[in-house]
Design brief:
Blueprint lengths: L1 H6 L6 H11 L5 E2 L5 E2 L1 E4 L2 E4 L6 E2 H13 L3 E2 L10 H11 L3 E2 L8
Parallel strand pairs: 6-7
Antiparallel strand pairs: 1-2, 3-4, 4-5
């Protein structure tokens, strides 16, 4: 089974690669759909966004990540991610290449 083979190698799981990427992009300026600038800091398994009082947990980030993958990476907006903090995760995911912003004037397939 593929999972067993991967366990025996040093290949990181996609979730770990995403989290490592998010750690590297801390303090990078992003913009929400309403063009509000923000950045975030990772502490442990939480993402703290400058415009938000509450943190976004790693579990919520991964739920949004897997939803984006389920949607084929073409996502029409933050609400499609369906998780707490989506308005902040959407522009981050777009910037780092996890999602492709859907455009009405473009045929994808």
């Amino acid at each position: 089974m593929l999972q067993d083979q991967l366990k025996e190698t040093d290949v990181p799981w996609p979730d770990d690669l995403l989290w490592d990427t998010l750690v590297k992009f801390q303090r990078y300026p992003f913009h929400t759909a309403k063009n509000l600038e923000f950045f975030y800091i990772i502490k442990g398994n939480e993402m703290f966004v400058t415009r938000k009082d509450k943190s976004i947990t790693r579990a919520s980030v991964m739920m949004a990540f897997h939803k984006a993958l389920e949607l084929g990476r073409i996502v029409t907006g933050p609400k499609k991610l369906g998780t707490f903090g989506a308005s902040y995760l959407y522009p981050v995911f777009r910037e780092i290449g996890v999602i492709i912003e859907a455009r009405a004037d473009y045929k994808y397939f």
